[in-house]
Amino acid sequence: MLLEFVIVGTCVLGMCVFLAIVFVYMERKVAAFMQIRIGPNRVGPKGVLQAVADVLKLLLKEGITPQASDKFLFNFAPFIVMVVAMLALAPIPFALGLQMYDINIGVFYISAVSSISVIGILMAGWASNSKYSLLGAMRSGAQIVSYELSAGLSVIVIVALAGSMSLGDIVESQRTGWWIFKGHIPAIIAFVIFIIAGTAELNRAPFDMAEAESELTAGFHTEYTGMRFAMFFMAEYVNMFTVCAVGATLFLGGWMPFHVGHFESFNHIMDFIPSVVWFFGKTFFLIFVIMWFRWTFPRLRIDQLLTLEWKYLMPVSLANMILVALIVIMKWHF
Amino acid sequence: MTNEELKTFITAQVPEAIFEETQYLNITVPAEKFYSLAKHLRTDSSAEFDYLICVTGVDWKDSLMVVYHLQSRKHKHVIVLKVKLTDRVNPKVDTVSDIWRTAEFHEREVFDLFGIKFNNHPDLRRLFMDDTWGFPLRKDYVDDVTIVQL
Amino acid sequence: MRPNEEIEELLESKEEDFVINIGPQHPSTHGVLHLKVKLQGETVLDVQPHLGYIHRSIEKMCEASTYRNFIYLTSRMDYLSAHMNNQACSMAVEQGMALAIPERAKVIRILMSELTRIASHTLWWGALGLDLGATTPFFIGFRDREEIMDIFEESCGARLTMNYNVPGGVMYDIHPNFQKRVHTFLVNFKKNLPEYDQLLTGNVIFQSRMKGVGVISAEDAISYGCTGPVARGSGVSCDMRKWFPYDGYEGAKFDEILETGGDCFSRYMVRVREMYESVKIIEQYIDNIPEGDFQAKTKNVVKLPKGEFYSRVETARGELGVYIISDGSMKPYRVKFRSPNFSNLSALKHMAVGGKIGDLVAIMATLDLVIPDIDR
What we know:
The structure holds 3 protein chains of 3 kinds.
Chain A: H1 2-34, H2 50-60, H3 71-87, E1 93-95, E2 98-99, H4 106-114, H5 117-127, H6 131-162, H7 167-172, H8 179-182, H9 184-201, H10 213-216, H11 226-251, H12 264-271, H13 275-296, H14 302-330
Helix pairs in contact in A: 1-2, 1-11, 1-13, 2-11, 3-5, 3-11, 5-6, 6-9, 6-14, 9-11, 9-14, 11-13
Chain B: H1 3-13, E1 18-21, E2 25-29, H2 31-43, E3 51-59, E4 64-71, E5 78-85, E6 92-94, H3 103-114, E7 117-119
Parallel strand pairs in B: 2-5, 6-7
Antiparallel strand pairs in B: 1-2, 3-4, 4-5
Chain C: H1 4-12, E1 18-22, E2 34-40, E3 43-50, H2 58-63, H3 70-73, H4 82-97, H5 103-131, H6 136-156, E4 165-166, E5 169-170, H7 178-201, H8 204-210, H9 218-223, H10 228-232, H11 240-243, H12 264-286, E6 307-315, E7 318-326, E8 334-338, H13 340-346, H14 348-352, H15 357-367, H16 371-375
Antiparallel strand pairs in C: 1-2, 2-3, 4-5, 6-7, 7-8
Helix pairs in contact in C: 4-5, 5-6, 5-12, 5-15, 6-7, 7-12, 12-15
């Protein structure tokens, strides 16, 4: 049991670092593609080692703790954010049979755990004893708490359709087709809302109010340096992976290959592609979409951000939920 | 209005005004009558100088001077108002920042560089330099470190 | 924006003020502007600019240099419209010398001015996107700006502080490649301009960040002495090229862009549409550069008669005035620069109070502040 625990823990740690490095490189290349430039191309072939060099630099940098800060909370905050990001990975099925912990309330677990990260961010903002950090943290608090609702409600749509909260069961329920195709219009609406709310929960542009470098210099992590900054940075990317993985699992079938109803011969051909490729392909597609947002859209203002959530997304998701309940009861879905 | 009309207009207000015609019409007025003239130039519909383009301080060694460039958008004419201040130690002139709000910043700049005080100015603080600094654009300003005397 | 009574209520409340210093080192102040901002939550209650971090005393330095030399100092004021700064100074000196400049020099000056204006506006456009959190416009803007910089480099020898104007005309003749390169630039730029609208103008988020933000009425804009796109965004006609045409702008066919909204979006639209007008002016002159001298014959030592000379030029940011007082010697007695940014900055408080921090950033971006021009 203990050995198992250690092995899984090491794997998760390694995967987090690896994912962060891959995403940093990917983000740089995507940004460069959007911005008519080449991107990193000096360190290693095609610049693939650039992200490794970045991590190395951040590791070696001095970690400064501001004199007037609350030292304990200041040093503790990045760990909370990082640990929470890793915890949320537990129930995600990466491939056929590759799942750390198929908890029967997997969806619920993820949304519960991922909202703890706001405590880490508030802690960081408060403990820094900097006005920019405080403003950033307050923004982030307001934002994550409100967008949690829409994200939760859009997830419930799929839970209602699949009839289970376990991610394994949800994937299994998509054997005859992904929910985005099977679930009629409500699933599509839920998917769109999930992507918007997910981006907002990640604090990424166009919802990067907490950082907003042109307004608050760097928001809640203004005072962080070196490895502690890197942990916030890594946590952001791991969270991005989680959100996209959950999105892929719920709406795009997770590791389930592209199946069309009971069209067996076609489904068999699709099954030849390994499930892990399907899962990461879908996840990376969603990650690309979220990166695409970041490099094309300007940032919203804080009041517009909250207006969008409370006046538009919330009512729409509530109505959507009622609609899907009706569909499930009347058995209109495939 | 033409320059001649402007001259008669201003003489009616300030009889002791001195006129000089160069590129624009230059009018030198005494400091105590400056504010009322400025107000009149702004409000009177036949003059209507609504743009205060520029406020300049000049040090004439024996006296100081504040130069106001005024423009009317309606009549397309430009005049230059000049106020001569003979008191070098405590030069004072009325502010026009309540007539043209842009004057608030321009007057602060003149105060900063020449030490000319503006009465009734809402926020007369140094603009560029700290309070202990001299008035660098005055001709008698000495700086042994950064100004090389040739 | 909140109604005014609510702001006054907040101002009167006895709660402790939350004051943050935006700048002198801050990503969105585009230089070393220092704003003391009083906040209530996210709402801005007061903005106090603190200046002087890069004051170089250009006016004092001008008093110590000759009429030929002081022009070069002015490139460092509004470095994004360096050519127009130099032109204003040259014009003031020429006015004192009673010197008429050759037709060829006039046309070259117009072409260079308009290219500078486009370069300045593209940079502003990119920086605006950056301030609003979109990084990509910066690169799109720089792509086109770079091409203009290359044209400048070829003809003037410098990319940013060109120092191309001298009293009497321009320093050198244009490079033989000049016309060809401007033509290629025009073709590319006209193809690229719609991209500017696609990326920002039509964007919903962008419009909601811009529309109704930082409103200044025409009367206030006049009272605050705003010029250039800031005033024209409020519907105040103030283009010096139309009002008091200089150096051959009499013959140029273009429209003065006016928008009536007075908000950030109007100022944005004025600048974007001005780029099209600049293209129009360049197209009009690029094939009609008259033959002849590029510089009038002047003596080596320039002396101005006793008197006062004032010249006004429309730079990319508004009206630049150069006021020279001469005592008849080789050096100016007093030089005063009426810089457009200085007046525009004074309206910042009026626009920003009552908005959010995000609005303050948007307003600063649409004022297009260049700090060295304010600090001089």
